[in-house]
Structure formats: C-alpha cells, structure tokens
Amino acid sequence: MTGRSFLALVWLLCWAGSSVAAVQVTVDRTEISINDSLNLVLRATDGENLRNTRYGLLQDYFELGTASRRTNIVTSLGKTERVEELIIPLTPRRSGKLIIPSLNVDGTVTDPIAITVKEQRKDVYARDLVFLEAEASKNSVYVNEQFILTLRYFHAIRTDNESLTGFEIPNAEYTQLSSSTYNTRLDGIAYRVIEIPFAVVPDSPGELTIPAIEIRLRQLERAASLLDMGKRMRRRSEPLAITVKPIPANYPRNHDWLPSSNLTLEQDWSADPAHISVGDSLTRTLTLRAAGVDSSMLPPLDTAAVEGIKIYPDQPSFETVSERDGTTALGIHRSAWVATEAGSYRVPPVEIAWWNTETDELSYARLPASMLSVTAPAIAAANTSPVEVPTAQTLPAETTVLTSTFTWQAIAVALALGWMLTTFYFLRRAPTTATVTSSPLPQASAQQGCDALIKACKSGDPEASRQALLALKPALSNEQLAASGLLQATLKLDQYLYGTRADAWDVAELLTAAKSLRKQIKPARKDKHSRALPALYKSR
User: Fold this and answer.
1) Any residues with CB less than 8 A from the CB of 172 and at least 6 apart, and which?
2) Which range is least confidently modeled, 25-29, 309-313, 426-430?
C-alpha cells in the first residue's frame, strides 16, 4: 500500500467514525481466496437512492461486477418496512489485508469493512470439475453453543437438479441460514460456488460427528432432451468431528445455562420514573439480545414486587433473527406500573448470568437498582379565609350601648314591618321553586371531565376512558376518588390495558362510578338575575 493510499484510507476511517450510517453495508464473506469473489450488499430502509453511490477508493482494491437490485418487505416484532438492496460482486486485485472503504451513498457515509484475501487454494479437489466440501467454524464448543457449518458446492460445468442427501447431524439441532453464490478460480479453472451455511447447536457433551454429505446432480453437456437427460453425478464431502465440552464447573447453578458470543440487557421507561404522581402509569420495557442463541434458550425476566406499585406484566415476545453468521435471539418484556401510594420506592436490580464464548469466561448482564419517586396528586385547596367579626372594642363609642328603651322598641317595630312587607311581596310575585342543595364548591372543570368520561365509557373504548380519567384526576381529591369508587375502577381498567387481558373489561363499574361522582359536583353557577327574569315575568 502506497503512502498516499494509506493516508487516504486513514482519513476515510476517521470520517466514518464521526458519521452515523443510515445505510447498512454488509458482505457475505470476510475471508476469501485471491481468485474468489464476494458480494457487497447496500441496504436502505429510509428511501435512500442506492444508485447514487460514490465508490471512491473501492475500485483500487476490488474489481466491481454487474450490480443487481432487489426489494423486500420485512416484518419484525409487528413492524413492517420496505428494504431496498443493491448487490455488487467484488473480486480482489491482490492478496493480504484489504479494506472496503467508506462509501458515500446518497449523502450518507458508511462504515469501512476489513477483508482478508488469502493466496490461491491448493487442495485435492482442484482438478475435479465438480466437488463438495464442508467446513466448521469451530473444532471445539460447549454444549448448546452455536457454531457454523458451511457447505460449498464447486462446479466448473453446467449442472442442474442438485440435491443434498444424507444431511443429518445426530445429537444436534441445526438451522439453514441464507445462502450465497460467487465465482472463484482454482489452478486456472473458473468455478461457480454455491455456499450454504447452517447454524448447529449440539445437545450433549462428547464428540459430535458430522457425517459425509452427498450431493446428487446432472451434468448438462448440451441442451437436455427427452432422449438425452444428461450425465448423472454425485459427490461427497469429508466427515467432520467436533469436540463438545460440558457446562463449566464455575457456572452458577441457579442460573440458566446461556452460552453466547455477545449479550446485552437494556431497560426503557415510557416516562421519567423519578417524577410520577399517584394514579399515573408507566411502561417498563426490558430488551434482552443474545448472539449465537435461539430465542427458546433465553431465561425469564421475572419482575419483583415493589411496595406502593401495582405491576401488570404483559406476555413477553420472542424472536430469532437469522443472518449469515448465525442467529440472534431477541426477547422483549413489557410491564405496566401503576403508582398507588406516594413515596420513594426501590426497583430491584436485574442480573443475568451468561458464558462469553469469545473470552471463554463467566459474565453477567446487570441493570442496577433504581428509585421510583411518587408524589401525591395536586388538590385545589378550598377557600377557608376567616371572616373578621367586629367586636365591641372596634365599634364607635356611641353605638356600643343604647340607653333608650323607646329607641329599641321603634327599631324592632320597623324591622318587623319591613320583614312582613317583603314576605308579602315575594309570596304574591314569585312562583313556587324547588330547593336546590349545592356542593360546597362549584367545579366546572370536574363537571366537564365527568361528562367526557361518561361519554367514553358509553362508547366502550378503554383507551379513551383512560385518557378521560387522566384529564379528570387533577380536579378531584383523594376523598372524592375513594367515595365514588372511581379509584378501584381505574385500577381494574389499568390491569385490563396493561395486564394479560385474560378477562373482559367491566365498563359498567367505571360508568357507575363516573355517574355517582357527577351527581356530587355542582354545575357552574349562573347569574342570579338571569335565572330570576323568566320567573318574574311569567304569565299566569
């Protein structure tokens, strides 16, 4: 590599490290022979134009073949997306350590990929025009540890009707991964290669034997016809032996055995757990990823009880994602947390033991303990300002004592006469009205919130009912919530929404509680004159 190329390569690596790639770039193999080819795959999920790609220094290291394009619709964990892929065959120009440099794909800079190019192959098959070989990624593994078995079918002549026979691996489970095709040259002969990888997981310790695998095919020397169906051929691979080790003695027995090349445990809250109020609900999501593992091997993530919090775990979802280098298990555990009491609560830590097959040692994935801070809901304080009552000391001196008996009698007569005239006037003019009993305070916002809740309940929509409850809660006190039965009905609604939903939602209970609360709330007070006018001028 020249000094100019090396400096340019370093610049590209630094530039790639400072950019976030929105376009995925992968290869089907990272180790090839000088006469092999590999496939470079550009994958876009956000509408990027893959044709608008600047290859830069890539052509200094590889010859680019004719590109092909394909479109896939991918569904993962309920999410569907459209994936565009551009596949470009690459043939190395020399052996050694090469780099697929960063590419500019429609304005997005991708990450570089290291490729190892070996010298020309020298093996016993090089003089045969058709042969089959098998290769294991590891010669020694632990029980339940995944390794990759790769079958390669080489043919330098036209063939068809290829089929594998005798492919069976005792005492192991195996899954076929995505295959690939490429071209190579051995001893001057050009071969077309079909490569088929399998993810193999041994079930028991000891020696695992992979027997010889046979492929049957038909050679096409000329166009096939009813009289000449071509020459039938068969080829076999060499058998393989894999050493399977037992579970290490230092692995904790109270944890499920989990061998993996990489494992991560992540936590996400739908809201800030340090700032929630009584009655609030938030969703906790735990995501466990393990490379080289099937989802059936993932351990359960049990949520410990937390005082003052109602926890409703949802059914966990599991998925096994297959790629060319193996499988990755994905487990998602969601639970709804509803705060029922104010205070600070400790969320216990989560710990998962696993065996790191890359470093061959015991490892732990941990989520540390955290705190939930729950505050009481805001309650509007009633206006209880004291009323000042004048005392004898605050009255003028001349009004503190009335010494004249006549004065007292005159005042009493005048008051009585005024009361009688007033009573006679209203009895003659005012109609008979019903007595109205009012609540201590008018609450227009609570009235509107109750009306919205009743409407949502009648529609039978639990999500809309939950939103109406959240809007109504700030206008109510804890006493009102408890007395009306609304608090209990809310907890049952949360269990339906965020729990296992084994039982149907009882909307009648929430509707009854909402109507009961509605009766306790006084409508907004109107102007007394506007209420009196129709009655005063009502005709007889």
Assistant:
1) 200, 201, 202, 203, 208
2) 426-430
Q: Could you give the residue ranges of the DSSP H alpha helices within 340-403?
A: none
Predicted confidence (pLDDT) per residue in 160-180, tens digit: 777 887 678 889 999 999 899
Buried-state track 391-405, b at ≥16 Cβ within 10 A, e below 16: eeeeeeeeeeeeeee
Q: Which whole number is the average pLDDT over 289-303?
A: 89
Res 415: pLDDT: 57
Contact 186, 119 (CB under 8 A): no
Residue 44, pLDDT > 70, answer: yes
| Contact (Cβ atoms closer than 8 angstroms) between residue 56 and residue 103 | yes
**Residue 47 Rama label (left phi>0; alpha psi -120 to 50; beta):** left
Residue among 364, 173, 134, 175 nearest 260 (CA): 364
Residue 8 has phi, psi (to 5 degrees) of -65, -40
Task: Read off the pLDDT band of 361 (50, 70, 90).
Answer: very high
Going by the DSSP 8-state scheme, the letter that residue 152 receives in this structure is: E
Q: Which residues contact 386 (CB under 8 A, 6 or more apart)?
A: none
Cα–Cα nearest to 116, from 137, 135, 94, 134: 94
* 76 within 8 A of 57, measured Cβ to Cβ: no
Distances (CA, A) of 314 to 296, 332, 346, 447: 18, 10, 21, 34
Q: In what order do the strands lie in the sheet with 276-277?
A: 276-277, 370-375, 343-347
Q: Which of 291-295, 302-306, 379-383 has the highest mean pLDDT?
A: 291-295
- CB proximity list for 60: less than 8 A, separation 6 or greater: 5, 93
d(CA 158, CA 162): 11
The residue with tokens 């590209």 is: 12
Q: Which residues, in sequence order, are CB contacts of 367 under 8 Å at separation 6+? A: 265, 267, 286, 349, 350, 351
Distance CA 313, CA 283 (A): 9
The span from the CA of 183 to the CA of 94, in Å, is: 16
pTM higher than 0.70 for the full model?
no
State the pLDDT confidence band at 214, using cuts at 50, 70 and 90.
Answer: confident
Counting every residue written for the chain, the total comes to 540
